[in-house]
Design a protein that fits this description.
69 residues, mainly alpha, 1 helix, rod-shaped, transmembrane, transmembrane helix
């Protein structure tokens, strides 16, 4: 009976180590994806702000020209 009790303990240690290694790899992948997403969002924001600023500038210039007339 004591032998039977000791077996699941070893198995659980093995399962824990496998789960831990999987979690580590998942966390590593997630952090890489997160960095890529941050770079992508930053580039998107940069592009969007450039387009937005050019639109705002054109609107402001057209407003200025119309107000000058």
């Amino acid at each position: 009976m004591p032998h039977h009790q000791s077996m699941p303990h070893h198995r659980s240690i093995y399962v824990n180590s496998v789960v831990n290694s999987n979690v580590d790899s998942i966390i590593h992948v997630n952090s890489t994806v997160h960095v890529n997403n941050a770079i992508f969002l930053f580039m998107l924001l940069l592009k969007f702000s450039t387009i937005l600023s050019s639109k705002v500038m054109s609107v402001l210039l057209s407003d200025l020209s119309s107000s000058v007339k």
